[in-house]
Predict the 3D structure of the following.
Amino acid sequence: MRRLRFSLSCEIVESLKMLSMRGLCVTKEGRSPTPATVISPISPKQPRTPMKTTLYRMLPLAGCLAAVPLAFGQIVDDTLVQEWNKSNIYNGGKLVDRIGDSIFETTAMDVVWVGNDVKISLHTNFPFSGTTVGNMNVTMADLAIDLESGFNFKHGFAMTTHGSGSFVQGSLYSDAEWLTSQDFFKDKNNLIYGGRWQDPNGDLREAPVELKGGTQIGSGFTVAQSSGTGTTYLYTITFKDVNSSGDWDNFSVFWGTAICSNDAIYGQFARGIPTGNGHPVPEPSTYGLIAVGLLFGLAGFRRFRRA
């Protein structure tokens, strides 16, 4: 497949060179300037435009599609959490999709790469303001990130400001240290929470839910809130200019929704590679192949009609 993509890319480049010689060059911005040679409309006495010429004129479309700097991945929540309370602190209870009310429901997580930007979207019912369970204020969980696409979450993103202002909403931290759901709830009577979560290998792990240490390496990243589809909220975090070195091409994310981790979601994302249970959109080179295939398919159909 890589060899095929390279071959077709070369053909596109050569075709664009020919277009440039004919006065139909394409700028880096993807706009076609005024042709150097104006081709007059075909009069009834002139022959039909050759199919080859038609293809050459349409090839800039393939070039534009191939240049789209976009890739996308989605994880639909299938992460299970284990019911814990003070009485079963050493063993835990059964594995479930969600504990408690629907306010803790998280259904999906999306990742979009656009140039050097990375956007992570969370589909959930949980509000920024948190909720009250018993006499305890349950706040939103931070985002735990592993840039090596595993379970070593050495990066963290503060979804809210907490720790007496030590961790600021919209800030990214490296060398992250975490409080787990057990740290918050292990001594609480009569409260069931997500004490552990099950990773894709079937292993049970403690849930990192709130930053307690780390080095701030970025701030001012936006968290946009909108209405979700199937959920109350859609939170979209935009990490601007974090991927110039490609460090964010492969990474994993864990989000416990709230500090109780009553509904957790975990996803591994790789740019342009189908991973997890979501629906990745093709990388730019694939768009180019699709465009070229459509062009030649249309040309074949035209030849069939003319026959």
About this structure: The two ends are 33 Å apart (CA to CA). The first helix runs from residue 2 to 21. The chain has two domains: 2-35+50-68+284-306, 79-270. The first strand starts at residue 70 and ends at 76.
